[in-house]
């Protein structure tokens, strides 16, 4: 299965290309479960070296190119020929009390 997703003729800084998603919906579904909830994610970088998360930069760039470097896919993880959920995402978890306090503070700001 993984063989269908490899681009042997693509040179991405001496790396083989990997097709992570078959369509935009698949990209969006994966992105919403991974990059969109990660504290490291930002989409303002114009090059990979300045990105807060180089893996996310490659994923976003794949919407234009259709592929990511195989090394990025291996770093994130490949399961059954598909990109796994990102192990490196960082999420701040709130306790229920912290979440209520955050909502309360934001509502209080709107009163003024």
Q: How would you portray this structure in words?
A:
The chain has one domain (2-111). Helix content is 44%, strand content 9%. It has five helices and five strands. The chain has helices at residues 2-5, 24-33, 54-65, 70-76, 96-111; strands spanning 6-7, 17-18, 68-69, 78-79, 82-83. A hairpin with a 2-residue loop joins strand 4 and strand 5 (82-83). The chain is elongated and about 55 Å long.
Ordered list of secondary-structure elements with their pairings:
Elements: H1 2-5, E1 6-7, E2 17-18, H2 24-33, H3 54-65, E3 68-69, H4 70-76, E4 78-79, E5 82-83, H5 96-111
Antiparallel strand pairs: 1-2, 2-3, 4-5
Nutshell version of this structure?
With 112 residues, the chain is mostly helical. The protein has helices spanning 2-5, 24-33, 54-65, 70-76, 96-111, and strands spanning 6-7, 17-18, 68-69, 78-79, 82-83.
Which descriptors apply to this entry?
elongated; two-stranded antiparallel ribbon
Structural class: mainly alpha
Estimated radius of gyration: 18 Å
Q: Which strand-content bin applies to the residues?
A: 5-15%
* Sheet with the most strands: spatial strand order: 1-2-3
How many helical elements?
5
Low-pLDDT stretches are: none
Number of strands: 5
Helix content percent band: 40-55%
Task: Give a quick account of the main beta sheet: strands, pairing sense, barrel closure.
Answer: 3 strands, antiparallel
Mean of residue pLDDT values = 79
Number of domains: 1
Question: Order of SSEs, N→C?
Answer: HEEHHEHEEH
- The coarse overall form would be elongated
The N- and C-terminal alpha carbons lie at a distance of 58 Å
